[in-house]
Amino acid sequence: MQKIVEVQNVEKIYGKAGEKQFKALSDVNFEVKPGEFVGIMGASGSGKTTLLNILSTLDTPTSGQVKIANQDITKLNNNQMADFRANKIGFIFQDFNLLENLTAYENIALPLALQNRPTKEIKPAVMGISEKLGLTEILNHYPTELSGGQKQRVAAARALVHEPSIVFGDEPTGALDSKSARALMDTLTKINREDKVSILLVTHDPFSASFCDRILFIKDGEIGQELKKENANRSEYYQEILDSLGTFVE
Amino acid sequence: MLNKLALSGIKHRLRDYSVLFSGLMIASAIFYMFMSLATNKSFLSANSPAAATAFIFGFGIVLLAIITIVYVNYANTFLLSMRQKEYGMFMMLGAKSSKISRMIFVETFAIGAISTVIGSAIGIVATGFVGHWLIGALDMQVKHFNSFYLPALIWTFVFFIIIFMFSAIRNSISLRRSKVLTLLKRDSQPVKIKRNGALKTVQAIMGLILLAIGYVSMWYAGNNPVFIYLGIPIALVTIVAGTYLTINSFVTAVIVMLKRNTKYSQKGLNNFTLSQLSFRINDYTKILSMVSMMFALALGAITVGLGFNNQIDNVVNGQNYYDVQLTNPDAAQQKRLKSLSIKEKNTYDYKVSGKKVYYRASEFKKQPFGYSSIDTKTMKSSLHKTTDPTKNGGYEIMNTRLPQLRMLETVLVSDKDYDAINAKESTTVLVKTNSFKNNLSEIKSISKAENKRYPILKNAGGDKYSAYTLINGFFSGLEFMGFFLGIAFLAMLASCLMFKILSGANGDVKRYNMLYKIGTQQKVLRATINKEIAVLFAVPAILGVVHVLLGLQLFTKILYKPYANIEIPFLIFLVLYLGYYFLTRYLYKKIVLK
User: Fold this and answer.
1) pLDDT digits over B229-286, tens only?
2) Is A246 exposed, middle or buried (0-12, 13-18, 19+ CB in 10 A)?
3) Coiled-coil segments, which residues (chain B) (predicted)?
4) How far apart (Å, rounded) are the C-alpha atoms in residues B557 and B226?
5) How far is B12 from chain A (nearest CA, A)?
């Protein structure tokens, strides 16, 4: 079967040769299939942000290979990386990263405008995703006029509007209250199920992680354990995650 | 310990501090440059015939002082925004607010004092440099001009010490009053969005109407000098207000219109750039209108200064038709004449008898006599030819003779009558070159030699070169002031704008970083930055240029052709202004992009 993300023997070392070096990732291997909802969990400093930065072409590995949608992203130059991010990847950040001088509509339309899509394509695309995420009422508001949950949904819409191969989430619920966090995770699950969008989340929050199909645990730069949801319901899975975390950390 | 921490904080942000220091140094350097002229009374009285000059400079001092205060205020905000987080952290760690406020006081004052001292030194060097460059480039005669002038230095120090004292007090009070949390989180405080379309429309229309009133009153006052005392104040008030309203609303309206045009706005980062601009314009209205007024004043000063330079040619040409006049030239003078590029050379003989000077009428038939006149209404000089200089150009033919013969009557006689006069014959050689300016140095040496041969000429003058020296001395002072003021103002306003833009750069880092993350190419980011800063520079420049072009209407009666050679000051301005634009955009990118 085709793979969306393929990570092989990835290593990341900070610091130049001869100086004091720090190995943030060592021999990381995993893959994500189309339509999968994968979580990466780990404590602070475990290397999960480094991994996400490499996956999203913001950083390059010291060695190893990363393929996304069958393209080796470690062999791209800067412009190609930018285009790759613009076309193939959607981003949801912990602190939303909306542009506060653009309205919600304009924020969502930004990735399409960046690709210079014709105007007549932009509007239906923005309206479609906004409807799905329940944003139609607030499209003319500026981010400062929105609540945290609304902001994150706008960010999610921005990540999805250009139909990327995969959506990366960096602690997307990190800045939300529990109700908004739940609403967002429900929305992401729905989109994952209905539209077969592949999602990869990085989080240290077991609650958010319990929405994933599969969780990779990362510790000291290595992937140690994998936990699949299979037929468990969410609360059972949540319990399993807590148990794994308890044993994994020790 | 805290002092050490504060110092290490400075080390970390050396780049930001270098922006701050250079900005403040420019401010004090320019202030000194201006004061070195404005406070130098002997310079002013020696170089300007008008008593109004002292008044104009007084006005200039007030204007420059206001701008400097605004400028230092921006610099101060920049400093505070840079430091507040750090000071907030110290307070969180338990530093007493009195200690912190003392630290910011010392820091502000020290930065002010250091940059004032260095800036004044730069000012002295720059004054000398600009002064000598102008004097050399424009063949000016400027008296009592000193690049180092102690009273100006003292004024600069006193002025800057006072404003930095106030800034330091203000900073320490504002830090003492703010809560620790506000200090730590000020960056993430939300921006308020104002949306009132109707008011903006009214403002836009009002702004354009006020500008129109201002322009018409300048045009009217220029053509009817009686109204000048009414026209200038009206123009000043309406144009300042009109500029403010126009920038505040009209420019915003254009941006909104562009945003509505989705074909344009939803292409690449256009929408982002437009939004950046519309948010900026709200914040920038004051500075942009100030800059556009300053731009107009600076450009106006240079243009009018240059207008006086054009006046020199006009007046000189109106005085004499011929560039060189010689009486009984010897071999050496004849040789010098050969070095000129001659357009016309006439030789007339004359004999003096009794109270009359006799010329051969036939000589004027053969080589008509050229003379020039000035129309006092249009200030325009014109050249003519005549075969009878007793009727037209009588004054000019008198002036071609040696001074002791000038008051005698000119008489044209036939060759027969002329030969019958028993007196010594003299010869006048009159030469018109193809260009007085291009032959200036040769003409100068011929005129000097002639003065040596006839020492009586020294005080009487009469030839074109002595008229030129007189008039050049008269107008050069004005021209020098115009150029000097123009350049000083321009440097000030452009650095003001630069500072304002750079002080907002820190807040933009996050936005550009986010755009980069969602896949914007670096070159696209650079292009939007260039576009955004270009608009911020262009808006006041365009308004300023319009102000100047219409403002010159004021001078239509005073200056001969106020619009002549206007491209020269505009070009000088463009080069300097573009320099600031490129510098700003370079520094901005250094702060904002990785």
Assistant:
1) 777 778 878 888 888 888 888 788 888 888 888 788 878 888 888 888 887 777 788 7
2) exposed
3) none
4) 11
5) 21
Structure tokens at B144: 């009592």
The DSSP 8-state label assigned to residue B349 in this structure reads E
Domain with residue A89: its CATH number is 3.40.50.300
B391: its two tokens? 């009727």
SS3 category, A133? coil
Q: How far is CA B3 from CA A196, B6, B142, B353, in A?
A: 58, 5, 51, 95
**Same domain for B447 and B343:** yes
Q: Is residue A22 part of a domain?
A: no
Report d(CA B468, CA B474) in Å as an integer. Answer: 10
Q: Which residues of B touch A56 (CB under 8 A)?
A: 517
CA angle, B378 as apex, B375 and B381 as ends, to 5°?
45
Q: Among B272, B516, B522, select the one facing A102 at the smallest CB separation.
A: B272
pTM (whole model) above 0.80: no
ipTM of the complex as predicted: 0.81
Asked if A140 is an interface residue toward chain B (Cβ–Cβ < 8 A), one would say: no
- Tell whether A127 is within 8 A of chain B (Cβ): no
Q: How many CB pairs under 8 A join A and B?
A: 84
Q: Per the domain annotation, does A27 fall within a domain?
A: no
Judge contact between B417 and B359, C-beta under 8 A. Answer: no
- Number of structural domains in chain B: 3
Task: Choose one of B436, B462, B488: the last residue of a domain.
Answer: B462
Q: Which residue of B has its CA nearest to A141?
A: B193
SS3 B308: helix
Q: Tens digits of per-residue pLDDT, A7-50?
A: 999 999 988 777 788 888 999 999 999 999 999 998 888 888 88
Residue B250 per-residue DSSP state:
I
Cβ pair B221, B554 in contact under 8 A: yes
Which amino acid makes up residue B585?
R
CB atoms within 10 A of CB A124: 9
DSSP string, B257-280: HHHH-HHHHTSTTHHHHHHHHHHH
Interchain CB distance below 8 Å, B521 and A83:
yes
